[in-house]
Amino acid sequence: MYGLPIVVTRGYNNTGPNREIMFVTLVIFNQIAKILKSENKEIIIGNPNPFRDFTDIRDTIQGYLLAIPKGKKGDLYN
Fold this sequence. Notes:
Blueprint: E1 8-9, E2 14-15, H1 24-36, E3 55-56, H2 57-70, E4 76-77
Parallel strand pairs: 1-4, 2-3
């Protein structure tokens, strides 16, 4: 890319501390907590069919930081 030494990284769905309530993982976790406290009886979400993998954001950041010194210029890392 314009002769710059760029290593391309591509992150996927992630989760971790300080995540806002609007994200699906926290929506589900909060509903589970309410079930455990007998405040709810079921988990209610929009479309339950998508299959997703989640990575802890701390692991994602560590991968980015490792890609800087160890990645090859122009290569793509998932």
